[in-house]
Amino acid sequence: MSATDDPHLGTAEQEPLGPPPIAPWRESWHYFLANRGAVIGLVVLALLVLTAIFAPLLAPHDPTMQYRDALLVPPAWLERGRPEFLLGTDALGRDILSRLIFGARFSLVIGLVVVALALVSGIFVGLIAGYFGGWIDSAIMRVMDIILAFPSLLLALVLVAIIGPGLFNAMLAIAVVLQPHFARLTRGAVIAEKNREYVTAARVAGASNLRLMVRTILPNCLGPLIVQATLSFSNAILDAAALGFLGMGAQPPTPEWGTMLAEAREFITSAWWVVTMPGIAILITVLAVNLIGDGLRDTFDPKLRRS
Amino acid sequence: MVRFILNRLLLIVPTFIGITLVAFIFIRLLPGDPVILMAGERGVSAERHAELMAQFGFDQPLWKQYVDYVSGLLHGNFGYSYSTKKPVLSEFMARFPATLELGLCAIVLASVLGIAAGILAAIRRGSWIDQVTMGTALVGYSMPIFWWALLLIILFSTKLGWTPVSGRIALTQFFPSVTGFMLIDSLLAGKPAAFWSAVQHLILPTIVLATIPLAVIARQTRSAMLEVLGEVYIMTAKSKGLTPRRVIWLHALRNALIPVVTTIGLQVSVLIGGAILTETIFSWPGIGKWMIDSISRRDYQVVQGGLLLIAAVVMFVNLTVDLLYGLINPRVRYR
Questions:
Q1: pLDDT per residue over A47-100, tens digit each?
Q2: Which spans are transmembrane here (chain A) (predicted)?
């Protein structure tokens, strides 16, 4: 973050009695907007979301349509390239640009579903472990340790081997592998918060366990969880593409980017564009999400913000 | 210190038991009958089926199966490969040096370059050096490494012809295997040509495998360095009139590297995940490719044994890093 444009000046003059209740979020948003990389990431992600939503309108061709007279046509700006196939075609004569546009749907849905599954189950498990403590905590956290003891891609692969290859199963497996990070974060935050005065006050006022966990404590642990969610989003996209590449994720002819790469592998010497394009799509998406994640981390970590 | 070590050792016992449980459950969760799975498409007669069920202990109660499984593990029995009929442990040992050699090269490259880049970015904070380094690190961190590998192959192997496309060494090179490391064995045999061939085969896989750890280490080093540079004792050192170079190398770096050691240790798990992809693409004969091949061949005893052995390696490395951390950071020891 650049030091010159400091939007914090506005709040710095306030009384040191404590921050007003809504201001922290607005303040965070200010910091986020001041981070050039994060804003670029957000814009790119927004464009990708629009591309995914309007894929049928944007794509010049049907992503599964095989043009038998146009096999391995290079991108339009190259010799032998044809204007109707902007990024060229693959070995079956399918338009690469259209496949990439439809592929955006898969990657974004993968990210969303995996993060939603991992986040909800991780928060649930972490809240219970942190709030109740004792043997419940020990038992839950040992299970999390065990999941984390395996390299995540390997564990995801083995899970897919059990439940069978396919996009949905790959998403489930990745969610299982990413979930302990959320559980650990939530548990740590809950333990740090649960003996604070405001929690005691709420308990004395008669709040139930469930209400204490979800309404009182959880909102105060959200910052790190949001950052972890962004990181998991990009990890999910990368891992799903890797599983697709290894033949254990989405199956052909699905225009999922990792699966497209797997199909393209044999043309590595003859048709570089078939290999290059899906990878660029993955890289841009993951990069955008990671830029947002970095911005959020700087926003939620006051220590980094001041320096 | 002894108590600290004992404590850490005790902590891994439940995790290890958990790992054996996961490996044990794995085969039983597979849909279908284990013996029919093993037999594959050839099928199996009813008598032979019962015989095999008894031979593998599948007719015993579950707890008995688990006890037998663990006692087998303690005697070094990690199961047998269906396809080669060899013990899983010896198959693992035959391939592990290949992965270890590649992994060590990658982690050394990632650590050296990553720490250097991180320091440079931190002491030139906000400059173009910082921005370029951290921008590159973010790209590296976001890289789908299987695609990165294909790009490097297109450029360096097919277009320029500088490096071989796959394998560990040229098929024309022969020398006795002593350590299992091609780089060392070729030198021991006194064959510089073989050594050069091994180096050429190593370059691209090492770069691919090092990419993500390199980015993570560079980012971590930078933020650790920035944190330390803001400490009071650095101000003291500066105000004592020490040269900036002395302050950075003697006072700041030592403390900044403590969290970096942990980061490097955590990268081992990432490396093994990366090795699965890297070894598959470069046909590197290590455990990553072995696992993928076994999964697609449905050689489930190998998958089970490999899973367990890999988790054990990761656990061992994490333990070592923990102990090392206690050694370089006295504050941890006395807690």
A1: 999 999 999 998 888 888 888 887 888 888 888 878 888 888 888 889 999 999
A2: 38-59, 106-133, 153-178, 270-293
Q: How far is it, in rounded angstroms, from Cα B52 to Cα B279?
A: 34
In-domain check, residue A18:
no
Q: What is the pLDDT of residue A271?
A: 85
The interface residues of chain A toward chain B in range 288-307, judged by CB-CB distance below 8 A, are 290-291, 294, 303-304, 307
Q: Please indicate whether, in this complex, the C-beta atoms of A152 and B126 are within 8 angstroms of each other.
A: no
Per the CB < 8 A criterion, the answer to whether B333 and B326 are in contact is: yes
Alpha helices, DSSP H, located in B230-286: 232-239, 244-246, 253-282
**Residue A214 has what pLDDT?**
80
Q: Which of B15, B142, B212 to mutate to test the interface with A (most CBs of A within 10 A)?
A: B142
Q: Measure the CA–CA gap between B222 and B217, rounded to whole angstroms.
A: 8
Q: Are A252 and A263 in contact (CB under 8 A)?
A: yes
Q: Retrieve residue A238's tokens.
A: 């990368």
* Residue B80 β-bridge partners: B87
In a domain, A15, yes or no: no
B147/A158 touch (CB, cutoff 8 Å), yes or no: no
In angstroms, what separates the C-alpha of B145 from chain A's closest C-alpha? 9
Largest Cα span, chain A: 77
Q: In this prediction, does ipTM exceed 0.95?
A: no
Owner of token pair 């910091």: A31
B316 falls in which pLDDT band (50, 70, 90)? Answer: confident
Q: In b/e form, how buried is each residue of B46-77, taking b as 16+ CB within 10 angstroms?
A: eeeeeebeeebeeeeeeeebbeebeeebeeee
CA distance A206 to chain B (A): 37
Over residues B133-177, the pLDDT tens digits come to 999 999 999 999 999 999 999 899 888 888 888 888 887 777 878
Please indicate whether, in this complex, the C-beta atoms of B15 and A3 are within 8 angstroms of each other: no
Mean pLDDT of chain A: 84
Nearest CA in chain B to A235: B142
Contact B99, B317 (CB under 8 A): no
Q: What are phi and psi of A87, to 5 degrees?
A: -105, 15
The domain that holds A64 is classified in CATH as 1.10.3720.10
What values do phi and psi take at B80, rounded to 5?
Answer: -125, 145
Kindly determine whether residue B158 and residue A268, on different chains, have CB atoms separated by under 8 Å: yes
Contacts of A40 in chain B (CB under 8 A): none
Q: How many domains does chain A have?
A: 1
Which option is the CATH number for B88-167+209-328: 1.20.1260.10, 3.60.15.10, 1.10.3720.10, 2.60.120.260?
1.10.3720.10
Distances (CA, A) of B205 to B107, B201, B303: 12, 8, 23
Residue A57, domain extent: 27-300
The answer to whether A121 contacts chain B (CB < 8 Å) is: no
